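Moderator note: this is an archived Q&A kept for reference. The question asked for a predicted structure of one protein chain; the sequence and the answer are reproduced below.
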Amino acid sequence: MTVSTGSAPQQTPRNAPSVKAPQAAGRGSSMGFRADIQGLRAIAVLMVVIHHLRPGALSGGFIGVDMFFVISGYLITAHLFREMRATGTIKLATFWARRIRRLLPLAFTVLLASAGLVYFFIPATEHGTMFKHIAASGLYVENWALVLDATDYSAAGQMATAVQHYWSLSVEEQFYLAWPLLLLGGAFIAGRLLPRFGPRAGIGRHTFAGPGTRQLFLGVIGAIMVLSFAYGLWVTAASPQAAYFDTAGRAWQFAAGGIVALLCVNRGIGGALGFLLGWGGLAALLAGAVLIPTETRFPGTMALVPVLGTAAVLAASGTERPGLRIFSHSTWLSIRPARWVGDISYGAYLWHWPLIIVAPFVLHTEPKWYHEAGILALTLALAWICQLLIEDPLRFGTWLKPVRNAFVFALAGMLVLASLAWAGTAASAQSSNLPRMDVSSKCYGAGTMEHPKDCLPVASDFAPYPSAVAVSQQVRAPLFPGCETDTLQVGESSCRLGNTANPTLRVAVVGDSHASAWLPALAVIAKARDWELVTHIRSGCSPSVAALKGAEKLSGAAERLCTESVRALGPGLAADPGIDAVIVAAQGNKRSWISSPGYEFKDPATEGFTRLWKQWTDAGKTVAVIGEVPRLGNKNVPTCVASNPGDPLACSVTRKQGLSIRHNLQRALEADSAPAGIVRADLTDSICSEETCFAVIGSLITYYDQSHLSHDFSASLAPRLAGELEKNPVFATGR
């Protein structure tokens, strides 16, 4: 999944009092206004926007995120150090109120606008997720909401929300909340343990300032940087999707900026070294934006490129000699166009992502290059207008100047956004289950494919029932809760369905989440034939005893748990006298397998499956394999259907496209290593005609996301699936 960021731009607004640096600060000081930082912000925000508009054109443009974090750490640490040194403490309420005035008015404005864009332009199938993330963004916990999504396998294919770029604002707000507390806490402890930091060290009126204030800050921030960097490396390896949004794994980037601010507290690095640092840092940033691949795991070691590059530019003071200023990096970063973009960078980052997300639904097509140019122009225009009408008036006006008013505004805004998100979700779901076609009709669902002369399989006069909204919610609402083990769950969740007292056949259902998608059909069969179903299903886990070569989107922990569970399942089911048959189902994916200790294969991609099946057939179990279902491209099927209510074929694909997935199970069935007697159940013809694979069949939407059969359509396939299984007498007559 790809995201954006932003930080609070440093700017001198029109009609606002000028901010003068202390005389001792000088050019390049961390203590005064630096115009070149606006140019650095301009580079960062343009990297992010271009990357999101054209990822292929600037694959590493997402490092603008890291640049903003370092800049924020630099500026906020400099500010806090200056206050500590001058007053002996940090006025927390005043500091946080200043952050509220600067950040929240525009952030709330864009969230309200995003809610309107979502409601009026985005299909209702996405409203539940979108409004949930709008609420999370308003509460500044969007990064943690995305962490939960990243570790939730069922959310892996969901559409990017219109506000997921607020994750970086959430991280920054959490930084603003924690940073002064950490510095005060470190000062308090140091003041008690080390007299050199001041005999009156304490909280409230007591001063923390002393001759070692800078050393104290360096010690506290340095410890945070080391611990956070180590944690970031670990969590990036263990859970790369979630690590990207983890505040603790990002803290070292803020700390790096803070270290630069403290080391260059009086004056930046000038001369030849400053020249090399400035231009070298910019070169590293531009090279990273061009060369770092989009799929690179962040924030791992590669994050050192933007962090060190930004730190180098911040540390360099530029060239002050009149004749040499033209060669200074700070001169070019301070030119008027760069400063203007830097001034509006906060608004630009806030506006660009909702515009990108909503554009395809407004245009009814994927944006072309001229649309993208228009999005960029509109982003800059909105950012500039908001600076004039919202940011500057509320930041420098009298209304939010009292600390109490600022906090009341923040609380009220959060409550309004949370309420609006709840109301939007409720309004979108009101008509989610209005009936259309008679569910007992032979033309309802997959049965229509069996009666092409009497039914209209696709060009039906009935709207889909359940609706696209209801079907889209199935990704979060399994029909049989507790029957599937989560990707990162230790141990196994299993359930029993059907006749559990005196069954005619006990069947183990094995596979990944696609096996769960077949449970509605299998439950219908089990009820009709007095079977007992026992589930052994793990999300994202292909039922192969071979080892994965690279875990695709699985984390290292998920890969290990998958391997361990599948290898235990083979002998476990083989030795279980209560199991008569095994049904296997899984998705078609592009994973690659290799041999591993205990399992040596000539062809791991097929033998990993067939070796597992052979353990069961050798033990006298009957084994059936349900073939991979077709894919309708990478589209979310309910969302596509909702977007094209008058064109039932708009979301369909050709049969060739639908079957272009990697058929791992099919290849294994056709391999020489496959044991004899395996039952192959192929339901392709119930989803595809000779020419087309359909998104709606017999008034039923076929998939609840990109690839999982919807609950109702799966259940409608029960008669056809039963017929396929009956190729073996065990499934026809019982044991």
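Archived answer notes: The two ends are 47 Å apart (CA to CA).
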